[in-house]
Amino acid sequence: MPRLAQFAIFLACSLSALAAPRAAPWAAALEAGGSALIVSVTDGDTLTLDDGTVVRLVGIQAPKLPLGRPGFEAWPLADEARAALEELGLGRRVTMYYGGRRSDRYGRALAHLYRDDGLWLQGEMLALGLARVYSFSDNRAAVPEMLAREAAARAAGLGIWRNPFYGVRRAEPPNIPIDRFELVVGRVRDVATVRNRTYVNFGDDWKSDFTLSVSPKARRLFKREGYDLDRLEGLTVRARGWIKSYNGPMIELTHPEQIEILDE
């Protein structure tokens, strides 16, 4: 084989290795997609590639910008998050990797992005403290690794973790904003199933105290994963999700990664 051809094959293999995810237990769950250049960044978790693909960085949530939404106020550090993603990715070639559902209702690709030098954009935004883990039941690959990176940034007080807007809330109703994505920590008082729905209660009054709610479909997923919700009773946990008001503040749990046991 001519040396030029040998070098071309070596170069192609080298570039492929750089674009591939670093070895990790969850890497096998990711399936490679296409590669392209990042040409614009919308906010801290959304960008556009030179082939026209709009990518939502799956598994994370960066501070939100108004983006033309009437009456919407930018979340603290939203500009900083966008600037950080621009610094990390603008003009760089990335490879898309999928670990679940591949697109959302807006037609955006739901992908993990790796730069041509192997840098994982989701992981870096979390490590900088400029995003939170935001997972879904149909897209759970790499969540444990992302939670670890978020925890390290939170412990170090980086980025958003210096701002009270993103502070971890105590499981007490006056401290929990409604209609916001929040992290909430507290000790589970009891776990009860009523009319086929499971409730993880944090107080004595189920009509006003903070609660986690689990539908029958979600409970089946927990069971398949070997996750016994009843064992949460008496444990201190940290839950994450959108807070809605239903007999007090409540988070709907759809998958196990939304809740972390802090006593273990």
Give the end-to-end Cα distance, rounded to a whole number of Å.
58 Å
Structural class: alpha+beta
Mean pLDDT: 90
CATH architecture assignment of the largest domain: Beta Barrel
What is the general shape? globular
Strand content: 25-35%
Could you say how many structural domains there are in total? 2
Report the helical percentage: 10-25%
Fill in the CATH topology of the largest domain: OB fold (Dihydrolipoamide Acetyltransferase, E2P)
- Flag low-confidence runs: 1-19
CATH top level of the largest domain is: Mainly Beta
Oligomer: single chain
Descriptive account of the structure:
With 264 residues, this protein is of the alpha+beta class. The protein has 2 domains: 3-161, OB fold (Dihydrolipoamide Acetyltransferase, E2P); 168-261, OB fold (Dihydrolipoamide Acetyltransferase, E2P) (Beta Barrel). 22% of the residues lie in helices and 31% in strands. The chain has 5 helices and 15 strands. It has helices at residues 3-19, 78-89, 121-127, 143-156, 216-224, and strands spanning 31-43, 46-49, 54-57, 59-61, 93-98, 109-115, 132-134, 169-170, 181-187, 190-194, 197-201, 211-214, 236-245, 249-253, 259-261. The strands form 3 sheets. Strands 8, 9, 10, 11, 12, 13, 14 and 15 form an 8-stranded mixed β-sheet that branches. A hairpin with a 3-residue loop joins β13 and β14. α3 (121-127) packs parallel to α4. The longest helix has 17 residues, at 3-19. Mean pLDDT is 90; it is low at 1-19.
Nutshell version of this structure?
This protein is α+β, with helices and mostly antiparallel strands and 264 residues long. Helices cover 22% and strands 31% of the residues.
